[in-house]
Structures are given as structure tokens and as C-alpha cells.
Amino acid sequence: MLSPEMNERLTRVGPGTPCGELMRRYWIPIAPFAQLLENPVRKVRVLGESLVLYRNKKGGLGLIGDRCLHRLVDLQFGIPDDCGLRCPYHGWLFSETGDCIERPMEARPNQKMTRKLAGYPVQEMGGLVFAYLGPLPAPALPRWDLFVWPNAVRQIAINVLDCNWLQCQENTGDPTHSVWAHGHLFNYVLERKGDLERAQADGHTVHRRLEWGVGIKDLYAHTTDYGMEKGVIYSKELGAKEDRTDRHSTVIFPFYTQTGATGAPRSEYQIRVPIDDTHTLHICYQVYAAPPGVAAPKQDVVPWYAPPTHDEKGDPILDYVLAQDAIVWVAQGPIADRSQETLGRTDVPIVLLRRQLQEQIALVEQGKQPMNFFPDTSPEILYGRGSPPEDWTAPDWATRQIKLSQSFRMNYHKGFSRDDADRYGPAVGLVQELHRRIDEARQLAASNSP
Ligand code: FES
Ligand SMILES: [Fe+2]
Predict the structure, then answer these.
(1) Which of 184, 301, 398, 449 is 20 to 30 A away from residue 138, measured at CA?
(2) Is the per-residue pLDDT at 211 higher than 80?
């Protein structure tokens, strides 16, 4: 539980707030680049600021304040020019720094104005547009592995959720929610839909998740170079099949979590971007990588999609993993009142996550650099899991039989993509083709091995 004051400190993200200032030290993903190919001018709201993202006629990107300096027209209706964005009303031209560089029908059209709009640096990486809203000079854009991993298919799922970002991110410090939100709740939903038998026949993930609730001895969490690692310790004595430790998804500070190993046939960043205090842009950055010797189908552009949250009757859709997460995050309220909660042993990683957030906010207040702030250059590739992956990049991956045939997430080509948001994605056909190729390579290696 937190004091009301600490809850405010960790959740609010507007300009000048403690957490908002921390967030302004990071490059923040604000939109799939593919959206700018559909429409080169888009309204964007991030960290409580209303902005317009645009692509000029030469392909350059800009992110500027959304209200024209003249008579305040919303620039989301602006016209891209060679070197900026023009207001649709009287043609005032704004550069990517937010400066007004032309006022066509005024007496001195090119006279420099002292007033300007906000203007923030933007960069594209891996099909996502990132913005930096903090003090200049901007740090390097970190090359987190999934954004730059070669030979892979990608797609980006986008949802706007009506709750504070920290509720979403705390979920990542919550390994045991999978047993209920993605196990018992899933079971209940499938049962009500009359879909349980088919799911059982498919080897649906719901059944594995029910097992994860048996024999829990403890939870663990510790800080890593880039965030935290945490998981569940199982005991045979308490009913588990064996004594074991299950690592849960990797946390990259401040708002990423990674599920699936880097380089694996399915992995994902879930990114919780604060739109403002009570809304979150939830991004699932989904990557389906090919192992050595297998070519991933080519993509010209990383496509995006918005997984539906409600059916045609207006009822919530709850038979996929992301929707189950989203409904419980929003159901905690616009900003969860953590002074009223009752924490238990399953919340051990969440306590660490909050402590990290407090520490990093304090560092920024002291004028220091927080975790994952890279002032000059980013290392070539940053591994969220702390070290380069081995299993999926080894040349002999197929002969080592690395859980390939057992893994649900390997089998999209056999129809096993129904339990998560991926099923709505525009790249699912390519993913199925990739998994087919991996399967063939594995079988070939198996038949050639002595
Ligand atoms: S309102 Fe924008 S140019 Fe007049
Ligand atoms: Fe979840």
C-alpha cells in the first residue's frame, strides 16, 4: 500500500510532475510509422500534452504543439509542406522545432516570430515513431533488441485504455495473475461461450495456466541492468510436478515488458505509454523471428491494428489474453487508489517495481541520469534479457529440438493463434508462413540427424 501522496507521485505524468519529469528523459513510442503512410498528419497526446505528428513532403518527421499561433486552429487538419506543416486556415508554416517560419498573407511574411509552438525530436525505429519530450540535448534512442532484430515478421497492436499507465505496468510485476486472469477467467469465458471442448482439443494455453497455480512456494524479484527479473518458485512438496523456478516476463524500465525470448518464433514488447494521467496507449510490438537458415517472409512496412475490445452488442470480448489484462487494469479505476489496497506475497515483484520507480524519480530530481538513459550513443543492440539469446540463434537450433514442437507459440500455422490479440493482426498470414518454414526446417534436421 502507498500513501496518497506517494500514489500521486508515481502516477501523474503531466509537465512538472515528478513522474512526468522522469518520463521526459526517455524516447517514447507514440505511433506506428504505417499510420503516417495512411495519413501524414495525426493528432497525438502524450504525457498530458496535445501535439500533432506529421510527415513533411520530403519524408521528414515533426511533432509540434497542436494549436496554430494565429487563431488557434487545430493543426491535425494541417497541410504537409517541404519543410514543415501549414495551418489549413491561412497557411502559416511551422517547422519541426515549432517555429513559425512563414505567414503568407501578412505584411512581412517571413519575419521571425518570438512566439513558437512546442517542437520535439522524433525518430523512427522498427516501424514505430518515438518522441523525446525532455530537456535537450536528447539522449540516444536505445536499440532494444526486438526493434532491430533481423530476419523477422512484425506487427503492432494499439489500444487506448482508460486508466493510468502504472496499472498496466504493475501487471508486469505480477506473475500469478496469469493463473486467474488468463487461466480461470479464460476457462469461465470459454465455458460460457460453449468453446471449452474445442479449446481443449486445440491444446489451448488456458489449461497450462491453470497448472501454474499449483505448488507455489514463493515469488522472487531482483533488479537487473535494464529493469527487473522476477518469477515464481514451485515446490514438489506443495503439489508442483517438480521443484522449479519459472521466470516471468522481463521488465525494461520504465514502461516495457518482454514476453518470449529474443529471436524466438514469437516474442513481444508490451509498452505502456502514458497519454495523460488517466489514459494509456498500450502497444504490443510483436516479433516473429526466423532461426538461422530459415528466411522470414518479407514485409515492406510493419503493419498496425487495433484489437477489438467489444463485440457488436457492446459486450467486452474476453477470450484472448490482452483483453483479459486490459479489462482488469481499467477495472482498477482511472488511477487506482493504492492507499486502500491489501498486498500479499504475490505482490513482492510489484513492491520492487514501485521502489525502482521511486528511486529513478528521485535521481532525476537530483539532476542525475536515470536507468536506461543513454546520453550519447546507444550500444549496438540492447538485450532486455541481459545477454544475447542463445537457443534461437545457434546454428544447430533444429537438431537441438529446442521445445519446438511442444511450444504453442510456434504453431500458428496449425491454427494456434486464437488465444491472443495476434489473431486480429494483419501479418498473421505471414507469421503462419514463417512457422510453416521453421517446422519444415526442424523436421528436415530431425530426419537427417543420426
Ligand atoms: S488560424 Fe492558423 S493560419 Fe490562421
Ligand atoms: Fe497478463
Answers:
(1) 301
(2) yes
